[in-house]
Amino acid sequence: MACFFNSRNLHHVRGFYFVGIGPGGSPKWLTHAAEDAIKESDIILAWDWSLKPVKDLVADKVIFFQVTKDYLQKEKDAAERALKTGETVAVLRVGDPCVSSSLAQVLEVFKDFDVRIVPSAGAAQFAAAKAQICLDESVLVSFHDGREEIKQRKLEFLVNSFNIGRNLLMLTNETQVPRQSATYLLEHGLPADTPALICEYMTMEDETVYRTTLGEVANTDYRLTSVLVVKNPNVNQCCT
């Protein structure tokens, strides 16, 4: 069991790790820090697909499986148990936990714990590598939060960001597929011949990268687990 201490009064407190496990396709993208956090934890909270790269590390752990309809309740159940037992909890996230629309909710559930976030590389970084663009010359937006009013603000932000010379990276889901985003961008002034990439299932066995244009994306359906990259020709790329 991991030992967590409050640095101000040195009292033992309950430990919580929010662990990024990489894109999820292979254990080779798992960091040593992520491995250590998982090994030191007693309770693992994860979606089924989050366990694939770490199956050898969780064989002797108490596992709370998350499902779409009540994923937040599973987190509350794990937190309630750990508060009673003093066990350490690790919530696993494919990619980087700081690129997650659920970060605020998770931290609220575990507010009585000593929280440690273990970052990792996510699909957006791998898509940027395929597109040969710098993240500091780009903006990243996730559509994993499906609320309509938030989605509209994010779309407006993307248009404004492109107009000031930024590349665009979008994490898609079923409520905002690449075709919908491309259509919005075209309707708000982006040229149809703007270079674009669709990066599906990054680092997984069936990874596929399409190098195309924004106009073509607006007329094509892609798989849900994808990143849409829009390359701004007005950016001086750091990689060529």
What's this entry about, in short?
The chain has about 240 residues and is α/β, with parallel strands linked by helices.
Describe this structure in words.
By secondary structure, the chain is an alpha/beta fold. The strands form three sheets. Strands 5-4-6-3-7 form a five-stranded parallel beta sheet, with helices on both faces. Strands 8-9-12-10-11 form a five-stranded mixed beta sheet, sandwiched between helices. The chain has a two-stranded antiparallel sheet with strand order 1-2. The chain has two domains: 4-121, Cobalt-precorrin-4 Transmethylase, domain 1; 124-230, Methyltransferase, Cobalt-precorrin-4 Transmethylase, Domain 2, CATH 3.30.950.10. It starts with a strand and ends in a 10-residue tail after the last strand. It has helices spanning 32-39, 71-85, 103-109, 123-131, 148-163, 178-187, 214-217; strands at 4-5, 12-13, 15-20, 43-46, 62-65, 89-93, 114-118, 138-142, 167-171, 195-200, 208-213, 226-230. Strand 8, helix 5 and strand 9 (167-171) form a beta-alpha-beta unit. It is built from seven helices and twelve strands. The radius of gyration is 20 Å and the shape is elongated. 29% of the residues lie in helices and 23% in strands.
